[in-house]
Amino acid sequence: MKIVKQQAKFRKTIAVTTAVLMALSSSMVGAAEKISGSGIAGSPEMLALGAKWQVMSDSAAKQRGRELFNENKYGMFIHWGLYSQLGGIYQGEKMEDGGTGPRVAEWVMRRKEIPRAEYEKLAKTFNPTKFDADEWVAIAKAAGMKYMVITAKHHDGFALFDSKVTDYDVIDATPFGRDIIRELEVACKKSGLSFGVYYSNALDWRDGGDSGMKDYGPAKNPLQKQFVNRFDPSPVSFDDYIANKSLPQVRELVNNYDLSQVWMDTPIYLPAKYSFEFYKTLYDANPEILVNQRIGNGFGDIGTPGDNVIPDAASANTWEGIATTNNSWGYKSYDTDWKSPIETLYWLVANVSKGGNFLLNVGPDGTGTIPAKSVENLLAVGKWLKVNGDAIYGTKPWQVDHEGPTNLQMKGTGHRSKKKFKFEFSQDDFWFTEKEHKVYAIALARADNNQVLVQAFKGKTVKNVRLLGTSELVKWTNGSKGLTVELPTFSDDGIGYALEISL
Ligand code: GLC
Prior knowledge:
The protein has 503 residues and is an alpha/beta fold. It is built from 15 helices and 19 strands. The strands form five sheets. Strands 9-8-5-4-1-11-10 form a seven-stranded parallel beta sheet. The structure holds alpha-D-glucopyranose. Alpha-D-glucopyranose binds at residues 28-29, 79, 104, 106-107, 265-266, 307, 322, 329.
């Protein structure tokens, strides 16, 4: 459908709000992202919208959404689209071989400056015959994941669902012709997983979405070069894009599919009025749906610490850590720097002990296959969760999130890919979670003589201690140094165990 030109523009003053300044960071939308509350502030217009937003945010329905989200704790993120066919290589050049902008593979159109008509040809070859929604959901389930979020439309503008707003979708433009979002929605429902979609609401290299940079951002903005399609720009304005593609497609998604979460992305200079409109659109269709903080301007339900970031401090707010299984979201054929089972478990445990969920990404290739190594690693963690899931699902942060010598900093996608994952967990490292008078102490290393000391319980009245996966209570004493536990003989696949301490 043609995007009609719309004249109305909002004053720049509304656009530059506290939350959008977060964009000036190395992790694109990372550094100033936060998990500790929405913090709506600014102009009178902003405060008025904020007051209306608050009523929706405080509603009982949203609270139900938050409870389900917290119960689920661990989910599968999926970045899949036309770009997956390229695997991060365009005309023989890797993402790293030159260009501006992020090197993650789903950014290939921007980084290699592929003209729109050229990129569009990828739709004609998109025929992922190996895609099987039930199989992907079975993998997520066996991995211990309780929800799934897939890219319904990423920054390249291509929709993986049946959209009446445009022909640039999987039904009209590809030989595949199947509604991927519908198939996954149905498969998730069958298996009891919550289902959500990612939708790049502010950035769209095909149809005029520039995160509001040109019309609402400062004149000289270095991010334009990194983010925006200036090599073959769409003739439509940002306002046109929002009114005639982004909002209508979000309406389609929320009205036609049963969603628990909508994951919006890259607001940067998105005016507050639009963030509000997106929020209200979702709320009116289904008030239990949660939306993440990248809806912009503080209007999110779910905080985000940033791409591949583990926050320093815990927060009891609703938030979600997000990470890749290698160092790209979209399939990158030559990136084999996979997070091992123990690293994956570390990310899960570190996020959950700080009060967050963990949404871990896989990048299926152009045939519809999730890379085997990532599946293998996920399943190993799934095995751990079968035994130790009580320490994760439905938990809240305890008074202490971690004790012990290991202090791993995870500060972004580039940071992780540069530093790799060097770990030496100690038997003195414990991560804690809490649920119904029980505290869980999760260890990622075995003790030399099967005796461990958990200091955080010093001075607390302990009723009993159980090793998850076993039914007998274990021997323990709580003394001046803390809780000493005699571990029974058990097998843990070398990636850790969890104690349940009843208080
Ligand atoms: C960033 C990237 C994007 C990825 C997302 C995941 O916003 O632009 O490619 O989808 O983070 O968190």
